[in-house]
Amino acid sequence: VVTTSYLTYNTSNGAVQSQTGQLLVFDFTNPANPVFLTYLQPSGLPGSGTGNANQEPYSNLIDQFYAFVASSTATGANTSGTALLNVISLASPTLPSPVAQVSIPQASILLSFDVSGTVLLAAGNTTGQRNPGVPDFDFTGDLTLTTMDLTNIVAPVVIATTTTQLQVNGTYYTAGFTNGVFAIVNNPPATDDSGPSSLMIADARHPSSILLYPFQTQFGFSGILTTTNGYLFAPTALGLNIYQLQL
């Protein structure tokens, strides 16, 4: 599963006109010949807007039969909203069906997440994208971190949300180690678009009390984080950085 997520705007004044997000479902039974099955606009749930009027910046397959989708109630020409996590059943892959939705009032939008054991950590932002987009459509708010209990996959329960004092222009990569520790990569703040990205470690071993450890900044952090056997692989503009978790 993957998602599309974008907005349209008036080129004369930068005002947002609409927002769009769709969940796309593919069949990789034959990796050499993936097949597109269908798409879904995760609507029809309370607060999710109508049609495809919400951005869906991230999704992931959870426990084989469910897709989790990061989103926001922000819709149409209004980029202010409340962060959402949509749960989509893929029991019938050609007929994906929304089954639950979780809101995080402290955040305006969720941007990425990952799972470690039965704990999900979601990274969001306290604001939506700048609207009008002058000089750009950056996120101008602070990083938020939310833990959820996935003991019942179809009914995630928010455990805690931490609103940091760290201004970031989006958090598009989150990766969990097996012990409840997560790595995240943030874009630089809107005040320094050309600055370096930041790699942070979020300790959610005690999910009700999220700890954010000192982080490294570097130009070119990009791509998808991978965690395996206590190691973190992080692509950069200069190559591949490999870190060993010492927690």
Summed up:
A hairpin with a 3-residue loop joins strand 4 and strand 5.
Binned, the helix content reads under 10%
Note the overall shape. globular
How far apart are the termini?
32 Å
Number of strands: 18
Strand order of the largest sheet: 4-5-6-7
For the residues shown, what is the average pLDDT? 91
Which consecutive residue ranges, at least 5 long each, have pLDDT under 50? Answer: 44-51
The radius of gyration computed from the alpha-carbon positions, rounded to a whole number of angstroms, is 18 Å
Largest sheet: 4 strands, antiparallel
H/E series: EEEEEEEEEEEEEEEEEE
Structure description:
The protein is mostly beta strands and 247 residues long. The protein is built from no helices and 18 strands. The strands form 5 sheets. A 4-stranded antiparallel beta sheet has the order 4-5-6-7, with no helix packed on it. The chain is globular, with a radius of gyration of 18 Å. Mean pLDDT is 91; it is low at 44-51.
Give the SSE layout.
Blueprint: E1 2-9, E2 16-27, E3 35-40, E4 58-62, E5 66-72, E6 83-89, E7 97-104, E8 109-116, E9 119-125, E10 142-149, E11 157-167, E12 173-176, E13 181-186, E14 197-203, E15 211-218, E16 226-228, E17 231-236, E18 239-244
Antiparallel strand pairs: 1-2, 2-3, 4-5, 5-6, 6-7, 8-9, 9-10, 10-11, 12-13, 13-14, 14-15, 16-17, 17-18
